[in-house]
Specification:
alpha/beta, Rossmann fold, DNA polymerase, domain 1, 13 helices, about 5% strand
């Protein structure tokens, strides 16, 4: 079965927002730099891959996800998007819908969870997946027929590449992040345990559960400060288990159960043209988008 492309949409909208000047304005004078940059990224990706199955996931659960309910400090270090960027997120979703590209968004689950749940569902139907994102969290999802693609850097890796990057296997990524923490998401991890120590512990014990069950073995390991490490783990065991609930990507988010729900559809010509006019996209961008939407023949571009 063809690989489905599951795109971390929020990441690429944020990148476009920072990369392009806000002098790009729509017909109402509102900034549309993030939409223009996201449209360019989307055109290049879809032109290169021509996927039959694709979805773009967005973060709408910025302060109200299930993770915030169990750990209020989750992502508390991040500022909320300004209103000008919030409007552009809406425009990006509208653009995708006009192109016939499925959109995944939910107010209780993050984009990671929507992508993970979609991948899990697609796998049951025989599809592999290409996760388009640079986020290390996605490593925990990769199976034998999946890849992760850092599109901006042109880097791709499969399950084996996770170990080369982090020193742990895909099934250990959530445990690894629970131990060493993730500053991006405001997850502190166990004090004094860095990335190398976390990887070494998981290489020996296999999982966080086994590590906590066999703490008496930790002082005997050839780790610098092994005895102190064991003491910190004993003190922060409950916290580490809580952090794993945060770092583990959910596989039960509300996404379509049928693979065909993520199949690219014919675009909406009238809606797409109205959006292009409102966003003041140039003729070249319009032609690319119309071709990708299937509303003009390729020769016209």
């Amino acid at each position: 079965m063809p690989a489905a492309h599951l795109i971390d949409g929020s990441l690429y909208v944020f990148r476009a927002w920072h990369a392009l000047p806000d002098s790009l304005r729509d017909e109402d004078g509102e900034p549309v730099n993030a939409v223009h940059g996201f449209a360019r990224f989307l055109c290049e990706l879809l032109e290169r891959t021509q996927p039959t199955h694709v979805a773009v996931a967005f973060d709408a659960a910025l302060t109200c996800s299930f993770r915030n309910a169990i750990y209020p400090a989750y992502k508390a270090n991040r500022a909320l998007p300004p209103p000008a960027l919030e409007r552009q997120f809406v425009r990006c979703r509208e653009l995708l819908q006009a192109l016939g590209v499925p959109v995944l968004v939910d107010h209780a689950y993050e984009a990671d969870d929507l992508i993970g749940s979609a991948l899990w569902s697609l796998r049951a139907h025989g599809h592999g997946a290409v996760i388009v994102s640079a986020d290390k969290d996605f490593g925990q999802l990769l199976g034998p027929h999946d890849e992760q693609w850092d599109f901006a850097r042109g880097l791709r890796w499969g399950a084996a590449g996770v170990h080369a990057r982090l020193g742990v296997h895909p099934h250990q990524v959530a445990d690894y992040l629970a131990l060493c923490g993730d500053a991006v998401d405001n997850i502190p991890g166990v004090p004094g345990i860095g990335a190398r120590t976390a990887a070494a512990l998981l290489a020996h014990f296999g999982s966080l559960d086994a590590l906590l069950d066999r703490l008496a073995e930790v002082p005997t390991l050839p780790l610098r400060g092994a005895a102190a490490c064991a003491a910190r783990l004993a003190e922060h065991a409950e916290a580490a288990l809580l952090y794993r609930r945060l770092t583990r990507i959910a596989l039960d988010a509300p996404v379509p159960a049928e693979a065909d729900a993520l199949r690219r559809r014919q675009g909406d010509e009238e809606r797409l043209q109205a959006l292009c006019a409102q966003l003041r996209l140039g003729p070249h961008s319009r032609a690319r988008l119309e071709w990708l939407a299937g509303v003009v023949p390729a020769a016209a571009c």
